[in-house]
Amino acid sequence: MSRSWSPRPRRRYVARPRSLWRRLVDYGLAVIILGLLILLAARLDRVETRKTQGVAIINDGDSITLGTERIRMRGIDAPEYTQTCRKNGTDYSCGTLARQSLVRLIAGKPVSCTGWQRDRYGRLLGD
Fold first, then answer.
1. In the chain, where are the structural domains located?
2. Long-range CB contacts (< 8 A, 24+ apart) of 96-103?
3. pLDDT tens for each residue of 108-117
4. 51-126 maps to which CATH number?
5. What is the pTM of this model?
């Protein structure tokens, strides 16, 4: 015979319904905690945000320097300045071409960048 068998039916535990006051307190605390988490997330997002502007010094096809801040442009993956590429069996300086393209694009105009993350080299990832 198994141990779980019993001649008497088991009594089920029935939780007492919570009072209206207790439910309101629970919902209120949940709303307050959720609101605090949202405020904390919004505050942490703004802490590291930096906006820099000025005339840029072009480092290579995807990074510039504004003042003392080195910035890598987010979403652009250009060849490094010293990198070479091969086309039709001939090597050419694709890194230099990428830098020259960015120089032509900016052409001494003021640049504005906003970012909050940094890459592994400490550069600001700018938008």
1. 16-47, 51-126
2. 98/60, 98/61, 98/62, 99/58, 99/59, 99/60, 99/61, 101/61, 102/58, 102/60, 102/61, 102/62, 102/64, 102/78, 103/58
3. 899 999 888 8
4. 2.40.50.90
5. 0.59
